[in-house]
Amino acid sequence: MSAAKVNLTILNRLYTFSVPEEDVERLKAAADLLNVRADAVRAMDRTLTPERIAISAALQIAFDAIQGRLGDIPEDEATIKRLATLRFRCDQTLDPLP
User: Fold this and answer.
1) How far is CA 13 from CA 44, 49, 51, 71, 97, in A?
2) Is residue 84 part of a domain?
3) Whether the predicted pLDDT of 14 surpasses 80
4) Which of 6, 47, 64, 98 has the fewest CB atoms within 10 Å distance of its CB?
């Protein structure tokens, strides 16, 4: 099992992670979700520190996950984006161009 280096921008800061290659897409999806939630928190209160924004967003995500509602939230832009990407990949695989 080889590890991949993944650069992710979270809350406008660049972070590098080392993860197994099979987890790269899931990590990117997690970062997308965190950024979407952080943007929503920031929009509600522009005076919050980046640390407070990150904690609030993470707490919202954890709460939704515990409640079993994480993927069911229609306004969750990260989930919508991820589903669109997966649908596109499925279409490409099932109907490849000649």
Assistant:
1) 20, 14, 12, 26, 38
2) yes
3) yes
4) 98
